[in-house]
Amino acid sequence: MSTSELWSTGTAREGECTTKGTVDPILINRVMRAVDRTLRCHHVDVSARVRLTGPAGADAPALAQATVVFRNVRVRVQVPGPSGFIATFLADRLDRQLARLTSGALPRYWPDPARPPLATPTDERPIVRRKHSALLTGTPDEAVRAMDAMDYDAYLYTDAETGEDAIVYWAGPLGVRLARQHQRQLPESASALSLTVNPHPTRRLTEVEAVARLCRYGLPFLFFTDPSSRRGRLLYRRYDGALAIVLPAAEGGRS
């Protein structure tokens, strides 16, 4: 069950905090103040929207997320961790994100020690969230910038060069990998990063088949083409153990 409320940060601003599960009000206060201090250090004059998810069990992590508009760009960070340290973890990640965006530094390193991939074989899990997204149409570089700003591990978009749905995802330090539905050549528009192209064909799978494959092989996410709509979809694991899927907001058929 989720609740949302305005929370005083001790400054002229108030931040919005949404909680799910059991979250101590003391922890909410600690997280909101830590995020507010980080924003003030970077001279950000708007408040952040924070989401806190309490641990699902004794050994499970809490999950914290902060979203803020920074220089007209929506910026998001998400990190798991013990409840006693989650405020520090979230503030540190937000600080590094804002510092990189300010300096124009390269995107974050991968693998990310603060957030290892959820890559363990499991029994089949349910899809509990379906995100119908208006996909960015652009170049791999533009997709990488959007992925980095939103602190995603993979990002579904429409490739402007081919018109195909595609994903970019982290693959090695300062490296990004591209997977498109059909084309497997290096795109002409790639420039900013060490980009490689996934050499394997994108599979045509039903959602049932995609779930089975992801869980059986312990994949953190799976990009596939839906046989009916012929559009790309991105299936991924959540920290609560369930699955979520991203798909185009308007699924038009393709040949």
Describe the structure.
With 255 residues, the protein is an alpha/beta fold. The chain has helices spanning 25-41, 86-103, 140-149, 207-217, and strands at 2-8, 14-20, 49-53, 62-70, 73-81, 127-133, 137-138, 154-159, 165-170, 175-180, 194-197, 221-225, 232-237, 243-248. Helix 1 runs parallel beside helix 2. The N and C termini lie far apart (42 Å).
What is this structure's SSE topology?
Elements: E1 2-8, E2 14-20, H1 25-41, E3 49-53, E4 62-70, E5 73-81, H2 86-103, E6 127-133, E7 137-138, H3 140-149, E8 154-159, E9 165-170, E10 175-180, E11 194-197, H4 207-217, E12 221-225, E13 232-237, E14 243-248
Parallel strand pairs: 2-3, 6-14, 7-8, 10-11
Antiparallel strand pairs: 1-2, 3-4, 4-5, 8-9, 9-10, 12-13, 13-14
Helix pairs in contact: 1-2
Task: Briefly characterize the structure.
This protein has 255 residues and is an alpha/beta fold. It has 4 helices and 14 strands. α1 (25-41) runs parallel beside α2.
Question: What features would you highlight for this structure?
Answer:
globular, Double Stranded RNA Binding Domain, 255 residues, 14 strands, alpha/beta, 33% strand, SHC Adaptor Protein
Q: How many discrete domains?
A: 2
| Dominant shape | globular
Largest sheet: 5 strands, mixed
Tell me the series of helices and strands, N- to C-terminal. EEHEEEHEEHEEEEHEEE
In percent, how helical is the residue content? 10-25%
Strand content: 25-35%
Number of helical stretches of at least 4 residues:
4
Termini Cα gap: 42 Å
Broad structural category: alpha/beta
As for the CATH topology of the largest domain, it is SHC Adaptor Protein
Question: How many E-type strands?
Answer: 14
